[in-house]
Design brief:
The chain is an alpha+beta fold. It is built from 8 helices and 20 strands. Belongs to the multicopper oxidase family.
């Protein structure tokens, strides 16, 4: 997360992620996360003519898992004001550095958006109070057992390290342990069976609530920092118990054609399906106990109608206040640890749209899922011939994540077996 400021000048926020807003004014610092965009008006005075000022973008180390000792937290730029009405782009004509000073305010330790209630869209757009259906993405950091693909949650890894338990080692030997075996059912629109939902499985007018026991990870428990990585595992981010793996030689959209609503999506990909045109709710649930994440959805506007703490059970959702009159529209929303957001979406653009964390290495670590919109329309899509011409160049395995069939997981297992021999 960054804090943006201009020395000795306040900021008025006028736009967020492409939406013009009546935003907070007279800010000393504007905080924003990866992938977010703001426009601000810098308030100046006549006496500023001919002067220059530092603008600062300071990273917040409280939002990091760890911080290098020699990291430079603040990036500097210079705003130079001319003495007339001319508009100049480029380096300051002054050879001397600004003599301005930073605001004395202390930096907040919260890695969250500015108050969403302080941002009101200028062009009003309300959303329906009732929706056609709902789906959920629940994310958490955990560990994948390399040999079996089983999952160890962050809390279990921490407990294992604290208790020096042999449970994890037994699991790695026999490959039977998987924390999700004890889990409750997934929300109807998020089942990872590999089969997309038939449109008849989501009834129009159904309550916009998840199932009563939809969380399939343990209750959220705050942990100070990541636990040690258990032997034989690799740290991953999981969405609906699945860790995204990029397969450039097997595009998702190709797998969905031409079967429509009965298409099969890879069982390794978390997915939510909105079968027909209409409004749907998407629950974005951050099960990480302390880390905030910037959630980004491609193609579809996210209308932020509610924010809650903990898990989106029927009880917690019943206590939410939904904002359906001109809610804030964003394409990247920050959700704090142990909380969730309800975004209302108009499923009017057919396709397979990616939802992911906008922190690059979190995406690389598996933090992504697919929102499938109108599969019956998608099956009518025609893949361009130039795209199809790439297919003959594909060589097994089709789930490779690199050229010439390179598969990191297989190579890792081979190396591990070599270690066992040695």
């Amino acid at each position: 997360m960054f804090f943006y400021s201009v020395d000795e000048h306040t900021l008025n926020v006028t736009e967020a992620d492409g939406t013009g807003i009546y935003g907070p004014s007279d800010l000393h610092r504007l905080r924003f996360h990866n992938g977010q965009r703001y426009s601000v008006i810098v308030q100046t005075k006549k006496k500023d003519a001919g002067k220059s000022f530092y603008m600062r973008a300071r990273m917040d180390p409280d939002c990091w898992s760890w911080v290098f000792n020699d990291v430079q937290l603040t990036a500097l730029g210079i705003i130079a004001l001319t003495g007339d009405d001319s508009y100049v782009i480029g380096a300051s004509s002054s050879e001397t550095a600004p003599q301005t000073v930073d605001w004395p305010d202390e930096f907040t330790s919260e890695c969250l958006d500015i108050n969403t209630n302080s941002m009101v869209p200028i062009i009003q757009r309300s959303v329906p109070r009732q929706v056609s259906g709902s789906g959920a993405f629940q994310n958490a950091f955990g560990f994948e057992i390399i040999a079996t693909g089983g999952i160890i949650t962050r809390a279990e890894a921490a407990a294992s390290a604290a208790n020096n338990s042999s449970l994890r080692q037994d699991a790695l030997k026999n490959g039977t342990f998987n924390s999700t075996d004890r889990a409750g059912p997934l929300p109807a629109a998020s089942r990872g069976t590999g089969e997309l939902l038939d449109k008849r499985e989501i009834k129009l007018g159904q309550p916009n609530l998840p199932l009563k026991h939809t969380s399939y990870w343990e209750s959220i428990t705050r942990i100070a920092g990541p636990p040690p990585t258990p032997a034989g595992t690799i740290g991953k981010f999981f969405v609906n118990n699945k860790s995204w793996k990029t397969s450039p030689y097997q595009p998702v959209l190709h797998d969905l054609l031409p079967s429509g609503s009965r298409a099969r999506i890879s069982p390794t990909i978390a997915n939510v399906v909105y079968p027909t045109v209409g409004w749907y709710d998407l629950y974005l649930v951050n099960l990480d106990p302390v880390a905030s994440h910037p959630y980004h959805l491609h193609a579809l506007d996210m209308h932020l109608v509610a924010i809650g703490q903990g898990l989106p059970t029927q009880e917690t959702i019943a206590n939410l206040t939904y904002k359906t009159e001109n809610p804030l529209r964003r394409d990247t929303i920050v959700i704090g640890g142990g909380s969730f957001a309800v975004v209302r979406i108009n499923a009017d653009i057919p396709g397979a749209w990616l939802m992911h964390c906008h922190i690059g290495w979190h995406l690389e670590g598996g933090f992504a899922g697919i929102v499938m919109v109108q599969p019956e329309v998608v099956k009518t899509f025609k893949i361009p011939q130039a795209n199809l011409n790439l297919c003959p160049s594909r060589k097994p395995p089709l789930d490779a994540i690199g050229p010439r069939g390179t598969n990191i997981i297989r190579k890792t297992l081979k190396v591990m077996k070599t270690w066992d021999i040695l």
